[in-house]
Amino acid sequence: YYSACACTLALGMAEGFGYAAAESLACGVPVVAPNFGGGEFVPKEMLVEPVAFRSEGIFGAVRPVMSAKDYAARVLEVVGKPTALPSHLGWNALWSRWKRWLEEGVK
Q: Tens-of-pLDDT digits for all 107 residues of the chain?
C-alpha cells in the first residue's frame, strides 16, 4: 500500500525503530517524520524538528512537542501538490480542506 501513497507521515514520537518509515522508504515513498525516536535513518530533509520538549508521567519521560504547521510545510516541500488521485476522493475539495486544517488548525 505504501507505493500508492505520495508520502507517509510517521507521527510516532516514541517508536524504537520506525518500521512504517523504513517500509515506506523501501517502497520509494518519501517519509515525513519527527526528528525524535526512530527517525535516525530518515533523510534529514524529510525530518520535522520538535518545537519544544515536555516531561510527562510519573518518571518524567521527555517527549517532543511537534507543530502541525511544520508537518504541513515539510509535506509540501517533500511532495509538493500531487496532481492526480482517484476521482472518488474529490481531490480539489480534499486538498483545500486538508491544507486549511493543517495551516489553521481544526475548528
A: 788 888 888 877 666 677 788 888 888 888 888 887 766 778 888 888 888 888 888 888 888 888 888 888 888 888 875 554 444 445 566 566 667 767 776 55
Q: How far is the first Cα of the chain from the last one, in angstroms, to the nearest whole number?
A: 31
Distance CA 22, CA 27 (A): 9
**Alpha carbon separation from 76 to 6, 46, 57, 95 (Å, rounded):** 11, 11, 34, 12
Pair 77, 64: CB distance under 8 Å: no
Radius of gyration of the chain (CA): 15
Task: Give, in order, the Cα–Cα distances in Å from 82 to each of 21, 98, 100.
Answer: 20, 13, 16
pTM given for the model: 0.64
